Amino acid sequence: DQQVKQNSPSLSVQEGRISILNCDYTNSMFDYFLWYKKYPAEGPTFLISISSIKDKNEDGRFTVFLNKSAKHLSLHIVPSQPGDSAVYFCAASPYYGGSQGNLIFGKGTKLSVKP
Amino acid sequence: KAGVTQTPRYLIKTRGQQVTLSCSPISGHRSVSWYQQTPGQGLQFLFEYFSETQRNKGNFPGRFSGRQFSNSRSEMNVSTLELGDSALYLCASNRGQSNTEAFFGQGTRLTVV
Predict the structure, then answer these.
(1) pLDDT tens per residue, range B31-83
(2) How many CB atoms lie within 10 A of CB B47?
């Protein structure tokens, strides 16, 4: 049973517009969430994270929103650039106060940003 | 500051053989985790080592094992290889504290023939 779900396998956005990637989770014990970007045949690159005590975290063009009651988080990229084209993974940490050594990943969303 | 280094980058092995993969974490990071990525299953957690001890373990058979050395470098071993073990194996390191991000290496692409 998937505990972290990214229901959109792909997303296409025009350059300069906003990209919104969504992620849902089922385990209420998850307390730390991360977004990674991945190119083929490379390791995931950390983008941004959020703790369950917050509902928003911003870093440059990237903002992550967390809605605990809905068990939903989203990553906003504004403005989107062609270099953002990659697969984006949502990940959750299942241990309260634990290390992030055990991450549960979604299946990923492939973002294509068209010039 | 050097990133996470995995060796080798590519491997081809025959069914029934065993393989050892290596991971050097970021300096100062004490936790090393291993993940398997396949097209069908996505990224799945194998195990985590912290201070030379296995701290967490995913749902993989005993053929998959690992260890961590005193300098935090880690190795992962897969014995009696099966075709289904073909995957990208990723290593991630983090400081081992709460709410800290994990950084990944480039991965080792293992092909079992």
Answers:
(1) 999 999 998 888 999 999 998 999 888 999 999 999 999 999 999 999 999 99
(2) 23
Q: Give the pLDDT confidence of A37-67 residue by residue, as tens digits.
A: 999 878 999 999 998 889 999 999 999 999 9
> Are B99 and A108 within 8 A, CB to CB?
no
Residue labelled with tokens 């092909």: B111
Is B30 part of the contact surface with chain A (CB cutoff 8 Å)?
A: no
Determine contact, residues A52/A25, Cβ cutoff 8 Å.
no
B26 close contact with A: CB closer than 8 A: no
Nearest to A74 by CA among A93, A94, A55: A55
**How many Å lie between the alpha carbon of A100 and the closest alpha carbon of chain B?**
6
In 3D, which of A12, A1, A2, A3 has the Cα closest to residue A109? A12
Distance (Å) from the C-alpha of residue A4 to the closest C-alpha of chain B? 11
B72–A contact, CB cutoff 8 A: no
Q: How far off is chain B from A65, nearest CA to CA, in Å? A: 16
Segment A72-89, tens digit of pLDDT: 999 999 999 999 999 999
B25 at interface of A, judged by CB pairs closer than 8 A: no
Contact A23, A5 (CB under 8 A): yes
CA-to-CA distance for A27 and A1, rounded, in angstroms? 11
